[in-house]
Amino acid sequence: MRIVLSLVAGLFATTAATADTPQFLVVGLDGKTFFTAEGDRNGPNGRDAVALVDIFDEANPRLAHTLPLDNSVYGPPTNLQITPDGRLGLVASSVMMKKEGEAWYAEADDRLHVIDLAATPPRLVETIKVGRQPSGLSIDSGGSFALVANREGRSVSVLSIRGHEVRVTDTVDVGDEAAAVTIAPDGRRAFVAKNKAAKVGVLRVDGTRVSYDPALDMPVGPGTYGLDVTPDGTVLLAGNTGPAPSDGHADTVSVIRAAAARPIVADHVGIGDTPEALAIAPDGRHAAVAVVRGAAAPHSGPGYTATGVVALLTIDRDGGVRRTGEAAAGAVTQGIAFSPSGRFVYVGNYVDRTLGVYRLDGDTLVETGVRLDLPGQPASLRGRAAR
Fold it and tell me: Which pLDDT band holds residue 7 (cuts at 50, 70, 90)?
């Protein structure tokens, strides 16, 4: 009886702690890079922020709080995440701007912001140093460690998480520019997007030790930034934006058999021009892809389109992946995330400065008409890491 009561008490404490923590999306707002009719341009630093969006009512998100913190659209839209218990947020600052003559140019940053989401209001705990141009990051299901892909550093930083204390414990050389990373659900393996090399690499995770074997690299496509794995660890999806974004040419999502001793690329699914980000639903049955199309191109260019789309992929039980739905989105779609229940999809529309809300209806995607105005350009978007 004591054992049963202890288990019940422990379960109640965990549930209560989770229930007391707000359900947030963390959204990086870039204030220094702009997509205009003439093309993209950069401006001075100091105008970035991180928005916290309350999704307790999944169909009607609301802006809860904003923190003035540097981040960037130059990093992939997965450069931030929330721990599984909802109490801590990590946000990477990929680049800062440097003025040369009359123009502003991006140069690599090396900082990671640690945010206490349980505080009222949420607050910055500290900012630590990681690798050069930290971009995509991933937190494990236990919330005890994280990995950060460093583009200019050509490496992955290994972080320990103990309460509010986040520290770099190791740096793993992966040989090429690393844009994104995702940890497998069992915590024994991780995958890294080597965007310029057009490959996805495999990392072995053994407790706190992480190692990389180049012999397991898989060929996908150039410009790989979106990366996510199903909750059962069997299927990995990689979004390939192509050699040039918004060039008018169709691109792909690679389907990878992730659980095999030697993972392999099993298929490529046509997705349209520039799949900037993707996310897999909590039940592993669907994936949503933010497709920029030509919205980031100069308006005079042959590949220009005014808006992007959200594409829906259905993941069959045998691991096959099919495109089954599509819905209109805003200009220059960036980050994308599912709601905790998996019934809704959120996408950041960078130029429009809005968060679009979509509802899953079977194997289709329905635009709800809800677009939350944001106090800046949404460059990245994520919710809690899966338990």
Answer: very low
Average confidence (pLDDT) over 202-209: 94
Q: Is the pTM of the predicted complex or chain greater than 0.85?
A: yes
Tokens of 348: 């950041």
CA distances (Å), 98 to each of 95, 108, 112, 150, 236, in order? 10, 10, 19, 20, 37
Residue type, 212: Y
What tens digit of pLDDT does each residue of 312-361 get?
999 999 999 999 999 999 999 999 999 999 999 999 999 999 999 999 99
C-alpha distances out from residue 177 to 42, 135, 137, 172, Å: 22, 10, 14, 12
Whether omega before 121 lies within 30 degrees of 0, making that bond cis, reads yes
Whether 113 has a pLDDT exceeding 50, the answer reads yes
Q: What is the pLDDT of residues 355-378, one digit of tens each?
A: 999 999 999 999 999 999 999 999
Give the span between the Cα atoms of 37 and 31, in whole angstroms.
17
Judge whether 14 and 34 are in contact, CB under 8 Å: no
Report the alpha-carbon distance of residue 222 to residue 164 in Å, rounded.
Answer: 37
Specify the pLDDT at position 182: 98
Residue 20: its pLDDT value, please? 63
Residue 257 in tokens: 């058999």
Element spanning 139, H or E: strand 134-139
Residue 92's identity, in one-letter code, is A
Tokens of 310: 């959200």
Kindly provide the residue ranges of all beta strands, DSSP E only, lying in 24-122, ordered along the sequence.
Answer: 24-30, 33-36, 39-42, 49-54, 62-67, 80-82, 88-100, 103-116
Cβ distance 273 to 258 under 8 Å? no
CA-CA distance, 169 to 14, in Å (whole number)? Answer: 28
